[in-house]
Amino acid sequence: MTLILTSDAFENGGEIPRQYTCTGEDRSPSLAWENVPANARSLVLIVDDPDAPDPAAPKMTWVHWLLYNLPPSATALPEQVTTAQLPTGTLEGLNDWQRTGYGGPCPPIGRHRYFFKLYALDRMLADLRQPGKKQLEAAMQGHILAQAELIGTYQK
Fold it and tell me: pTM of the full predicted structure?
């Protein structure tokens, strides 16, 4: 079975509605997943934009959201999820605005792609004290059992 990540806010490859962006309410979309491997011990969610700042000449990947140590028993995150609503044990990393939590699409130019990536790991990660993406990915290395991806696009 393949790990699957979906949202009822947009289809894979589809446009992310305005309310989930900086030009709207900047709230996180609902996410749901299924087929988490039975031996998974934690989940990681990374949301990023590889098209920054300009899709015609990308120079960096902008990180929008980092969550780790989600329990493998969790199957979804509600729309506009708050820290208090995250599943027990979930820890947050710093996005590229240097804050925790979701930061929605806010492309300066052109249509960008936003990758919502869910990873099932064979262990819990240590408390990395609000890591950035590179630190989180380094901690995950060698422990990924499965991964799923959901891509949305947005242009101001």
Answer: 0.97
